Amino acid sequence: MSEAKNVNPRNGGRQGRSQRRSFEQKKGDFPQEQGPELHEKVVFINRSSKVVKGGRRFNFSALVIVGDRAGKYGLALGKANEVSDAIRRGTELAKMRMDKISYKGYTIPHEVSATYDGAKILLRPASEGTGIIAGKTVRAVLEAVGIKDVLSKSMGSNNPANVVKATIAALKMLRTRDEIQQVRGLNRKPKDETTTEA
């Protein structure tokens, strides 16, 4: 008669250490933004190589940003052995990490600047019809968020990852007039409610 083996039900009936969960298995643990309205943009693709016994082994990383062009965005870095797989992973991870910024209309409410590592970004409001005056890295972020008219200046490092994160840090500092008045405890009355006394 064979002896019964010790089986751990938490590990799916397997002995020893639990197996590492694959990327596909982890996807169900995070809520994802669904819908065809999400705009996807590959900001940068990097290739790295490793010398092994049989030759070189290449790995690719893709920096992807997604957004609904209405204030929501997501940024992620996908890594894989193929470019297409890296882009797909980056897109799926970005959809899991959606965040929101504050702005109204076609441009940003006020001037703002932010720094991330060696990259510094300056954003200024622009009149309607100006368009996005920015480089391709900053433009990808602003288009994904939905800002149509803005002036920008990139100073310091031109590393795409740092420039993107500096742009996002600047956008997170934006506050609308209503949000500032709410923080200060001011009650703004609409213009139609104000009455003039004779």
Topology diagram in text:
Blueprint: H1 23-26, E1 39-52, E2 55-67, E3 72-80, H2 83-96, E4 98-100, E5 112-116, E6 119-125, E7 132-133, H3 136-145, E8 150-156, H4 160-172, H5 177-184
Parallel strand pairs: 7-8
Antiparallel strand pairs: 1-2, 2-3, 3-4, 5-6, 6-8
Helix pairs in contact: 3-4
Short synopsis of the structure:
By secondary structure, the chain is α+β, with helices and mostly antiparallel strands.
Describe this protein's structure.
- The structure is a single chain.
- The chain is elongated, with a radius of gyration of 24 Å.
- It contains five helices and eight strands.
- It has 198 residues and is an alpha+beta fold.
- The relative contact order is 0.13.
- The strands form two sheets. It has a four-stranded antiparallel beta sheet with strand order 1-2-3-4.
- It has helices at residues 23-26, 83-96, 136-145, 160-172, 177-184; strands spanning 39-52, 55-67, 72-80, 98-100, 112-116, 119-125, 132-133, 150-156.
